Amino acid sequence: MCTLEKTGTNIFILTLTGADEHRLNPTLIDSILSALRQAKSQATKGSVLITTSRGKFFSNGFDLAWAQAASSKPKATERLHHMVELLKPVVAELISLPMPTIAAVNGHAAAAGLILALSHDYIHMKRDRGVLYMSEVDIGLPFPDYFTALFRAKVGSPSVLRDVLLRGAKVKGDEAVRRGIVEAAHDNEERLSEATMRLGEQLASRKWLGENYKEIRKSLYPELCGVLGLDHLIIAKL
After folding, report:
1. In the CATH scheme, what is the code of domain 2-228?
2. pTM higher than 0.90, yes or no?
3. Are strands 101-105 and 48-53 parallel, antiparallel or unpaired?
4. How many Å apart are CA 188 and CA 6, to the nearest integer?
5. Contact assessment for residue 137 and residue 167, using Cβ atoms and an 8 Å cutoff
6. Is 195 exposed, middle or buried (0-12, 13-18, 19+ CB in 10 A)?
7. Measured between alpha carbons, how far is residue 30 from residues 17, 34, 89, 93 in Å?
8. pLDDT tens, 9-66?
């Protein structure tokens, strides 16, 4: 599950709770989507969202154990497809959220868990623990169309796309910064928290109009928005 809290500086903090791997099953995905929609409904000028987690993992991807617990292989495949379809609105909500978004990745972010992090405007992570890892090539699963569209939108280097998506490279904090996947890596959880909160406060202080911010964001990623079914407002109301 997850919680959503709002600070006095207009920052929403979405936390994946518990000490497990934060596997993205239907219950957790629904909880995240509900929290995002709550933040959107309460947003004002200068709102910011920070997403983080407790424990060793940011998120270790889809709950494959839940899928494999189905009574047959076709039903297991159906469960996996169901999770893929459920996560798509979460990505769409983050891409169209009327506020800046920051992922504070305090542990491993793998597969769909990395997709969750990459859906934010900024990613900060720890350098002493945790890797970014797309495991699909290693476990024999194809990428959903919105996964690859998100990577193409957020990662500009063809060699990085190749290494992460086709080689299953496990990327630690400092390397992730060098490769342009994340903005910064920090020595420990305390410094990560301080840095993301500081960034959040800086962004909140700009008092940007959220509806305009989200339209500018969407205009940066036309292919991704097309895959997600998000329309782009070309002319804003004055």
Report:
1. 3.90.226.10
2. yes
3. parallel
4. 24
5. yes
6. middle
7. 14, 6, 10, 12
8. 899 999 999 889 999 999 999 999 999 999 999 999 999 999 999 989 999 999 999 9
